[in-house]
Design brief:
The chain contains 2 helices and no strands. The protein is elongated and about 35 Å long. With about 40 residues, it is mostly helical.
Length: about 40
């Protein structure tokens, strides 16, 4: 199972693998959405 924390997601954005890049984008978008809800 892969990590789903922010640091790993940011690192995977620079990956050459398209699937892992999209998965990382999803993690970051979900995190941003949660932050917006809190404010």
């Amino acid at each position: 199972m892969e990590k789903v924390d922010l640091a790993s997601a940011r690192r995977r954005l620079h990956s050459s693998n398209i699937k892992s890049r999209k998965r990382a984008l999803k993690v970051l978008h979900d995190y941003r959405r949660q932050v917006q809800k809190i404010k």
